[in-house]
Amino acid sequence: MGLMSPAMATIERYEASTVPVVADLVRCVLGENGLIALPTESFYGLAVAPFDEQALARLWQVKGRSEGKPILILIGDGSQLGPFVQRIPPAATVLMNAFWPGPLTIVFPAAIGLSDAVTAGTGSVGIRLSAWKPLRDLLLRVGPVTGTSANREGMPPLTTAEEVQRNLGEALDVIIDAGPTPGGRPSTIIDVRGPIRIVRDGAIERGAILAQLAAHGLSLDAVDR
Question: In this predicted model, what pLDDT tens digit does every residue of 86-100 receive, in sequence order?
Answer without folding.
Answer: 999 999 999 999 999
